[in-house]
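For practice. Supply one:
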Amino acid sequence: MHCPYCGYIKSEVIETRDNEDNDTIRRRRLCLQCDKRYTSYERVENIHLTVIKRDGKKEPYNIEKLRSGIIKACGKTTIGIEEINKLVADVTRELRSGDSVEIDSRLIGKLVAKRLKALDKVAYIRFASVFKRFVDAEDFEKELQVFSKRNKLIKKN
């Protein structure tokens, strides 16, 4: 770490604190040459994920695009922004823990759909209609029938 005042390489760490996000460490340092104090931040470099779209094109994983799609699906439901942020964080964490940095977009859709199904039926159906590319009302009906059958099986067990 170079001192921002004199450029000297050696410094002493005076204080270390975790930031509120728990992704960054703040360190107060003392330059061993000019005796001035400065702050440095350390964070783990994120793995850059690539999404493979249905047409085979690749694009960088965009967490805000994912969040936006989930927010649209959850509009006028009981799901709050905290739950949405947790869902996005959980999906992102699961993707990062996988074996590959290239992820099929269908996997992302399945992970989100699975979580939305547990949270809210309406949000799930809205999301599924885009993810599964529903064309007409019959597609909605089929998905609702599958969803209802699964719920009945779960309630019986």
The longest strand covers residues 11-18. The longest helix spans residues 137-156. The CA atoms of residues 53 and 105 lie 5 Å apart.
